[in-house]
Amino acid sequence: MKRVYLPLIILCSVFTTLLSAPVRAADEPIVIRFSHVSSESSPKGKGALLLQQLVKERLGDQVSIEIHPAAELYNDTDGLEALRRNDIQMLAPSLAKFRAYTPKLQIFDLPFLFDDLAAVDKFQGRAKGKKLLLSMVEKDIVGLAYWHNGMKQLSATRPLNEPADAAGLTFRIQDSAVLKSQFKALTANTEVLAYADMFDALASGQVQGAENPWTNFDSKNLQQVQPYITETNHGVLDYMLVTNSRFWYGIPHHIRYELENIITEVTYAVNKAAAEENERHRNNVLASGKTRLITLTAEQREAWRQRMQPVWQEFSEQIGERLIHSAQAAN
Ligand code: LMR
Fold this sequence. Notes:
disordered N terminus, globular, 19% strand, binds (2S)-2-hydroxybutanedioic acid, alpha/beta, 9 strands
């Protein structure tokens, strides 16, 4: 019953947003304020710059993209509320940040769900993955694309070989109930902190560990404060490029069509570069000589997987068993 009515709900919601779209004079440029929390040299930062460049080349004076990097305007959580108010028009939060708007996207935080970025890519490209882009339309948020960052690694002030090594440490996490539960399974503590506050919290000892893809670890210079990193690849950190639905469906069709084509092109470039970017940052981290790499044996990795497995049961009802199965099938 629920499934029959879902497309109708989305259609009605889009129709309502169309009726309430802000009025704009025909000769005024459309301004898209794109806020994000990363540096300009990060995968997300580069994606935003490429988007700005292609929009300028192809849409000239019709659309202008203003980029606000490094959380200069908002963190992801307050950024999402600003987007809903149409104070900004684009944001690309990590998928962990959407839980206030849909429980479904928590799927991407489940530990050891995806074997690698290729599996994540496959799932996101399938019908069920694409449908998630529209899972927040009723909250005025429309997903335009998935952008990859990379698989997450665990770092700490002491070596993490076995799950028991994490016990008692406090890890910085994104605001995600799944991630909180993941560390609880290790009998570790968590503290929810904005990305911008992570370095200082690690430096002061307020928290002793974190989980990041290689790109973020290196961009944030965590080599200075994390002497050990375990290559767990236990989860994914990806983004959803989102916009405000009232704003988006108020853009004249021919311009929106061109914007969508550009976004497809930028998405391809960002996602194609992801694996290479992580490799490059991994090399930087190891070359720094400050952070020691811990490589797990197959048995050790299996021990981490099994320890975190109960998290799946805890969230399977909220996320949906079928969705989890289809994600697994992408491996
Ligand atoms: C985080 O909070 O760790 C991530 O969302 C940062 C990012 O890459 O956007």
